[in-house]
Amino acid sequence: MPIHLRAEPGDYAPNVLCPGDPVRSAYIAETFFDPGFRCVNTERGMLGYTGTFEGQPISVQTTGMGCPSAGIVFEELVMLGAKRLVRVGTCGGLGEGMRMGDTVVALSTSTDDATPLRYASMPGFSPTASHTLVETAVELSRDSGATVHVGPIVTSGLFYDSDPTTFATWKRLGHIGVEMEAAMMYTVAAVHRLEALAMMTVSDVLGDDGESVRISDEELRRGVDDMMRIACRVATSA
Known about the structure:
Strand 9 and strand 10 (212-214) form a beta hairpin. This protein has one domain: 3-Layer(aba) Sandwich (Rossmann fold), CATH 3.40.50. The longest helix has 19 residues, at 217-235. It has a 5-stranded mixed barrel with strand order 5-8-7-6-9, surrounded by 4 helices. Helix content is 34%, strand content 27%. The protein is of the alpha/beta class and 238 residues long. The radius of gyration is 17 Å and the shape is globular.
């Protein structure tokens, strides 16, 4: 039994959704899983649930915020038999013409946090998503009517950045979003030969001057719900 996910092999499905927030983990299980799901972890408030989605096995596991916390969870999910990790959550939008509530599919991640690079033991490592999951996510998102953006993102170790030029630098290099966990997930997946994908709803549109405009709670819930249905289908796709 791992230290932080107090579960046994078989308690988690091979397909695991990975939000940062434990409240969101509970909401996902209650809203999108078929009846009969069960709680498989409560350690440190990092809630995890296992059940089915449209008859296919699926789990959801809280990761917490940032690469160090998320890396512990991803590693222990591997110990417990996970084969496919799908990060679900929110991101700041950096792309031109991006609107709040849009969907971002992270093709690759640049990391502004040293944790994934330390884990990879390669300072120039560039972690990427699983191509088949990217294709599936984009197709399902567009079929649902969502506005979806596909490209590189940044995984940052800072939520409150004191440098007002950071967003402009990232945008100049073509990054379309910023969040805090995807690079760690993609790196752990590469080391262990897992499938991985990060899908996020744009919760803030970030300007070159370091300023941001944030989505309302109601608009965010609608956007996340729409994205979450797609993520469940991606996670359980053949």
